[in-house]
């Protein structure tokens, strides 16, 4: 009897363990939406255990709602499993009650066979994997999009590299790729050809060392600014030394390479030969110097001619007219102040006055006799009388320290400016300001006339060309300030000038 009791006790314990296992299984199946099924092959009976309880079915009803596109594949897999060829593992779509389709995964294996090895009982699972398939589809779509994007980027990169290589090799200017130390990594054929270097001889050479000795420091500072992107991108003109030691003028551009970590610190150098342009600029400077010298000689010749004409008018014609005036004599006593020579005397007097005015305008004797300040006062007084307008004069400094040719230039600038005011400005007041001292001389003629737009005026307008040439010949600068309705100011500035004597 003790043996029976122990046997019964063991059976009871096994029943309890089986009940707990079933309870745990039911909880797990309900939480995971897993359906476990058993199939009795000889009786074609299927028992399903799931969250909906226990259900009965047949093999045909298990796979009756399979999607038509999956039916053949599912039928083949189930035939193999039910005939004992191998386990079942199949994913397919089944119809839902709402008319849609749900993905389901079916698994099965033979758990009991007869003496001949034919399946008697199969056990398996059904599991809804619709959400999983949705995630998989989303991931596949993302992977496809990423793959397409990677392919597009790869094609774009290859195309960009091909274009760069084409430009690099066939560009009409010199191009070189530099590293962070400004050393040449790869030059193109144009750069090596212009500098006369053998193939690959430039590789590893630092850009500042390619510059002529007088330009190395400037090239080094410029390259450092460009590489560090300190301020706006700027070009540089410098001489690079060729393989033969011959310097070549080059227009340089340096641009940092954009492209991530691999391109960090790399730069692209563009170098264009400008020897022809520099030679042309030098010729233009020489021509300008020659034109300036010629202009100075023309001004000197003009002043000499004016001096000669003034002397001829004063000494020759003036004396002749004076002699004629003396020959006409004064009116006879006892007459009413008129006689046969009254009109001739008036004509000769007017001619004498006109000759004096012309002689003074051509070469004022007061400039040579009394100096610049006195001649400017006389010039302003004449303008005040002839043009009948207010003329204010302010003179500061000792003009006796100025060279005679500079005094003449200042006088001519003031004379031309006052003439322009009388002809064009329609002004009522003119201010003349002159100052000299500490190596600087300035004269300003400002009116309250109608003014004009200096940008719209032609280069030679109002005698500006002559004034500019005179001022430029003495190393000075002529500025013009004007606007419609706001008057005009002519400013001649001479700096760092030598003293007279």
Structure explained in plain terms:
- The structure is a single chain.
- With 501 residues, this protein is α+β, with helices and mostly antiparallel strands.
- The chain folds into four domains: 33-128, PAS domain (Beta-Lactamase), CATH 3.30.450; 171-273, PAS domain (Beta-Lactamase, 2-Layer Sandwich); 279-363; 372-501, Heat Shock Protein 90 (2-Layer Sandwich).
- It has helices at residues 2-32, 59-62, 68-82, 130-170, 189-195, 207-210, 216-227, 275-328, 342-362, 365-369, 372-387, 404-425, 464-473, and strands at residues 34-40, 45-50, 53-57, 88-95, 101-113, 119-128, 174-178, 184-187, 236-241, 247-256, 267-273, 390-396, 429-437, 440-447, 477-482, 488-495.
- The strands form three sheets. The protein has a six-stranded antiparallel beta sheet with strand order 3-2-1-6-5-4, sandwiched between helices. Strands 8-7-11-10-9 form a five-stranded antiparallel beta sheet.
Could you list some keywords that capture this structure?
rod-shaped, Beta-Lactamase, alpha+beta, 501 residues, five-stranded antiparallel sheet, six-stranded antiparallel sheet, single chain, 48% helix
Sum this structure up briefly:
The chain is built from 13 helices and 16 strands. It is an alpha+beta fold.
